[in-house]
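Form P-L/3: holo structure prediction, ligand pyridoxal-5'-phosphate.
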Amino acid sequence: MASQLKVSGMNHVFHRSAVASYPVASSGEGVYIKDTAGKSYFDASGGAAVSCLGHSDKRVIDAIKAQLDEIPFAHSGFFSNEPMERLADHLIARAPGDLDRVYFVSGGSEAVEAALKMARQYFMEIGQPERHKIIARKQSYHGNTLGALAVGGNEWRREQFRPLLIDIAHVSPCYAYRGRQDDESEEAYGQRVADELEAAIQEHSPETVAAFVCEPVVGATLGAVPPVPGYLKRIREICDAHDILLIFDEVMCGMGRTGYLFACEEDGVAPDLLTIAKGLGAGYQPIGATLVSKKIFEAIRDGSGFFQHGHTYMGHPAACAGALAVQQVIEEDGLLNRVRVMGGKLKTALEERFGNHPHVGDIRGRGLFIGIELVEDRASKQSFDPSLKLHAKVKTNAMANGLMCYPMGGTIDGRTGDHILLAPPFIIDDSHVDEIVEKLGAAVESALASR
Ligand code: PLP
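OUTPUT (holo model):
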């Protein structure tokens, strides 16, 4: 006899945390999310730098509904679809360098996996099969699938899966607050850490290295850390000198978050492969993409003719229609400029509130992508005892106050250090800036008081 249907009491989801209990989100209005108990939360982190248009943009929702009425899904092994074609045109018309093709996937980790495999296949196609090594940076995050996790330099995420991860060389990040010496200019520091890439290439034999991967502005792991002037240019020079592909992971920092559609535009450097997700679809649909340079695309087209990869939902019509609408709203509403203006206001307000705070060591970032590093002692930059889990306390207190922010621990080495990442929707206004600073201030103070 068939077993009886189990009665559902909302007890069967395997949540991110198997021990936490989460409020249930029931509606969204602008920058706010409401739960089923009626409590409202200001989304000052866009979840994890996702919801750049807030939670109720009708133009995006209508575009997705209209696409569902036309055709919800047609497998990309059989058909192309109009929103996918139009979204690719839109992105490439604005993309830096000679990025020329878009490979659509469903999220950031998938975009990184595709970029890594594309880099490898490129060298197979052009007759350099010995090139397979990837170099990346410590204190980075590129996703949780095995390839992306291996490339990432986030130690606490990698720890238990280490035996399953491919071997990757990791060089230092460009993290001026902690890495720059007192007598060193920002530029000199940037050249010094970029030159670690040159040393790693030499150590691993240049003719075996396929690609270098980095986040132009580091997101979750370091807390909105931009490169110093000249750093990415030097990285590009080193890659070019050895014919190594440069991959920029803009899953978090791209699509307008820094005030530029592509974060690397601000540094005047273009990669060979560029990954995006999060703000591409703004959370209205799951979507990511890998932008590919002409030379890589042509090597595959004129070689085997087929990128040996693929996922069932790549180029999903409803996801592409939603993302295209998101990108059009960003342009129609002049949101890149708004990000720069409101980012400046938010940073100034945070500096006023926390600039002399005894436990705030650094306030950094670009546009509406801002990190605050918490320290035990400002002068020595001594971090808090990690067992205090200060970052987790800030998150809990902020949620209790009706504020979503994105605190994280392990800022310095995967174990010590605490920071808070802010990535509010691009639509915030002056009163929202005040609300973020006030609620965040209360959450930080109560976390510090409960040490
Ligand atoms: N790359 C970066 C820079 C990210 O910040 C993230 C997610 O936070 C990813 C990749 C992975 O994206 P996803 O969580 O959509 O798989």
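COMMENT: The longest helix spans residues 335-354.
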